[in-house]
Structure formats: structure tokens, C-alpha cells
Design brief:
Length: 217
């Protein structure tokens, strides 16, 4: 199976997919799409790879698949071990809920194209993004407490094993820092992030490892 990942080093959605691939030790070819240079809007990329003009896009034997949730669920089904979704249906629903809270409820509102559409003023963009990230993280923090109350707490977001929820939460916190969101109010999220970042797959897929030389300093 030939996998080609179109991604950008500090795109949180890209990191989710890199992380899932690393978690499952699935090899892939890496193709950087420079978002700041606008290459996600390149005519051929939009026509053939990602009609929304976004990263990530995983090509599977030449077939382009976008949307990190769809990509990660496809990976889970084709390479089930080590798993990213718990077997228990309720725990699995909780993981998917946390995933969507980030994927649908938080990240889209602070995305590059949305920010630029909201305002051309960098301060206004930052204020907009911070507002929505703060709202999402506040809900996530509470959701972790609710899950803990159901006996689903542990070292990681849900239980003691890494799940897809961790792959969405940690990159969202990485984004939050870029927008200078005060994270002190989110102790559960910070603990979950620290445990997730200590794993090999997190380190292998981390944005720092994929940063272009010009941004590494
Ligand atoms: N729901 C999509 C979100 C993809 C997305 O928003 N990608 C961002 C980077 S994290 C992007 O390509 N932004 C470029 C732009 O907005 O122009 C997914 O999970 O794959």
C-alpha cells in the first residue's frame, strides 16, 4: 500500500494524522504544503487532492482522502492495532465526542482562512481565535471531569491508553499556545497533554520535527 501525506508542520489537523500513522507504525511519504505561501489553494492541489483547499490529505494508492477523522478511522479499520478507539461502546462514544469537540467545535473557528476572513488585523484575528479556543478548551476540561466521574479517567484522556481523543487534544493545545491562550485554567487538559507528549508517536509526529529549516530557529 502506498501512502503519501500532504501536510504542514504546524497544522494541528496534519499532526493528528502524522500521530496516528506513527502510533500504528505505518510508513508514508511526506509532502509539505506551505500554508503561509498559499500552496493549499494551488489549482492542481484543490482539483485533485483537497477540494476544500486544506491539509491534511492522505493519498492511498493514488486515491486522495481528506478530513483527519475519516483518515484516522480508515487507519483504525485497516491497521487496528495498536488501537485508537476503545472497544467498549460507551468509552468509544466518549472518545469520538472529544474528537468532534475539537474537530467540529473548536479548530474550524480558528483556522487560517477563517481568521483571515474575519479580519485583516492580526490583533483582531488573535482575539477571535482566542475566544473560540478558550470556549472549546473550557468545554473539553469539563468533559474530562464528566468522563472521570463515569470511571473513564486515567493517564490519558479516556482511560490509561492513548486514544484518538489525545491526538486531537494535544495539537489543539499546541495551537492555543500559538494564540497565547492562558492554559492555567485547564489542569486536566495539561495533564493529559503531558502524558500524550511523552509517547514515542507524539515525538515522532511533533511539528518541531517537520518544521522547515527556516522556521526551526
Ligand atoms: N476538518 C479538517 C480540517 C482541516 C484544516 O482546517 N486544515 C487547516 C490546517 S489545520 C488548513 O489547511 N488551513 C489552510 C487554510 O485555512 O487556508 C480535518 O480535520 O482535516
Amino acid at each position: 500500500m502506498g501512502l503519501v501525506l500532504h501536510h504542514y508542520f504546524r497544522s494541528s489537523s496534519s499532526w493528528r494524522v502524522r500521530w496516528a500513522l506513527a502510533h500504528k507504525a505505518v510508513a508514508y511519504e511526506s509532502r509539505a504544503v506551505d500554508l503561509l505561501a498559499g500552496l493549499q489553494r494551488d489549482e492542481a492541489y484543490v482539483r485533485d487532492k483537497s477540494p476544500m483547499g486544506l491539509v491534511p490529505c492522505l493519498e492511498v494508492d493514488g486515491r486522495p482522502l481528506t478530513e483527519s477523522v475519516a483518515i484516522i478511522e480508515w487507519l483504525e479499520e485497516t491497521t487496528p492495532s495498536p488501537r485508537l478507539l476503545p472497544l467498549d461502546p460507551w468509552a468509544r462514544a466518549r472518545v469520538r465526542q472529544l474528537v468532534e469537540l475539537v474537530n467540529a467545535g473548536t479548530q474550524p473557528l480558528q483556522n487560517l482562512s477563517v481568521n483571515r476572513h474575519v479580519s485583516s488585523d492580526p490583533d483582531a484575528q488573535k482575539a477571535w481565535a482566542r475566544h473560540w479556543i478558550d470556549r472549546g478548551l473550557t468545554a473539553l476540561e469539563r468533559e474530562l471531569a464528566i468522563a472521570e466521574g463515569e470511571g473513564l479517567g486515567g493517564r490519558h484522556a479516556i482511560g490509561d491508553a492513548i486514544t484518538a481523543a489525545d491526538l486531537f487534544i494535544a495539537p489543539q493545545l499546541y495551537n492555543a499556545r500559538r494564540f497565547e491562550v492562558d492554559l492555567a485554567r485547564f489542569p486536566r487538559l495539561l495533564a493529559v497533554e503531558a502524558a500524550a507528549l511523552a509517547t514515542d508517536a507524539a515525538k515522532q509526529s511533533h511539528p518541531d520535527r517537520f518544521a522547515p529549516v527556516s522556521v526551526r530557529s
